[in-house]
Amino acid sequence: MNAEKDKVVTFHYTLTDAEGEVLDNSHDRKTPLSVLLGHGNIIPGLEKALEGRAAGDTFKVTVEPDEAYGSRNEDATQRVPKKYFQNAAKLKAGDTTVLSLKSGGHQIVTIVKVGMTAVDVDLNHPLAGETLTFAVEVTDVRDASAEELEHRHAHGAGGHQH
């Protein structure tokens, strides 16, 4: 079976930056990543590279910023009251954390400066502006369940956890 829209693709990956430094590696977690293709659950460049692949395929793909996390926007900073952060007292410049948004979503931010009552954050994704290379090993491709299609993402063994 080949990977395409509405198929669940399971794969191991090693992610490196333009200098070859390993940024992330699914092998360290022992469990591969499973994604429902065609629903925007991973960056576009990697999703496109998975299309047409089958279990057992291995490949490398380099993804430019416009197909990954976009270009950096140097003006994308914001001052946020400390009360919106968990463990605000422990935050320091350079840390990354997740902010809950009023819309119900979440955003990864990088701490720029911690003040007495507010925190300055960089709203760019930490990998914005980066050219990324993925070494991928596809371990499985399967039809998505009706529930996965309804929820628009893959579920792990035993169903969903949300």
TrEMBL record:
Localization: Cytoplasm
Protein keywords: Chaperone, Cytoplasm, Isomerase, Rotamase
SUPFAM superfamilies per UniProt: FKBP-like (SSF54534)
PPIase FKBP-type domain residues: 6-81
GO molecular function: isomerase activity
Pfam families associated with the record: FKBP_C (PF00254)
Catalytic reaction list: [protein]-peptidylproline (omega=180) = [protein]-peptidylproline (omega=0)
EC number: 5.2.1.8
PANTHER family: FKBP-TYPE PEPTIDYL-PROLYL CIS-TRANS ISOMERASE SLYD
Protein name: Peptidyl-prolyl cis-trans isomerase
Organism expressing this protein natively: Tahibacter amnicola
